[in-house]
Amino acid sequence: MTTNDTVLRQLTELDPARDLAPPTPAQAAHLRARIPTHAEDLPAPAPLHRPRRRLALASAAAAVVLGVLSTAVLPGIISGTGTTATAAAIPMLEYAVPAGVDAAAELEQLADHVRETAPPDPAPGPYTYTHYRESTWASEDRGDGVIERHPREVERWTWVAADGTSRTLDKTDGVTGTYQDWPAEGHGTAADLSGTPEQVVRRIAGAEPEERDGWELIGTYQSDVSRYGQFSAKDRAAFFEALATTDVTSYGNVTDRAGRKGIAFGSSFQHDGLVDEYRIIVDPDTGAVLGSEDVITGLKDASGEDEVVKSYLVILESGYADGLPECGDIGCRSMGLPG
Prior knowledge:
This protein is of the alpha+beta class and 339 residues long. It has one domain. It contains 6 helices and 13 strands. The chain is globular, with a radius of gyration of 20 Å. The two termini are 35 Å apart. The relative contact order is 0.25.
């Protein structure tokens, strides 16, 4: 046993939240839609005017990994150095079209491009494997009308078997936890993207058309990718076609938080005097999800900015594994159903 192994085990034992089961991305998205925000007295911002433009497909500098991963070749989960989050706002990405434009034609063209040119889907393995990093903030009212946000960064590795059972590992603000083994019940399956675009939207967002249809579509899709891995090329194209039928905005080219070139689309809805928007970043060649951003407009942060990043998620790896990682010195813990 190395010194690092001993320190990691001691840190795990001292972690006050070690017995708390972390929510899945889908549960987190579900909760975010229902948590009130502390800004009831702020007026809603004026709607954006969104002219239409066409899509210029460009090559991505680096794509999400879509391949078979050997169990013996696992990521640097424990050896990597973590960054402790500071009490500062999450920086905004720089988009080619900051104000956003209508995206329906772009998404339809992207769907055709993915369907016709995407490389073959990799052969499935016994376990789907995903590795992502996300940052969210807890808010604190200073008492003078300004909400301070304190980012919290989590890196997660997930292995999901065909029967729905899974193993996860979290590193929170640089501190590695324990492998957690989850039962199949309560975790659901990836979204069904079959049928017409309208059928896909109604299946995911509910029977009645609403302002938040696109928002729910993006939230569900990126959440499923973070747990179950990238969808097939056929399903990626179906998602873009479905999203094109909703109130969606294009933000053009963007470099994501892992340094990769992508294109971004967003959809929002208004509540409590705010505008909450999910933005999804995808590879322009393959359509694979690179990450997502949750952007709030109308809530002033400590720097006075009106538009702030509430959270983000970056898909770092996605593919298949031949088996589960060994529990090793950090151990494995059997988890019950979420409460």
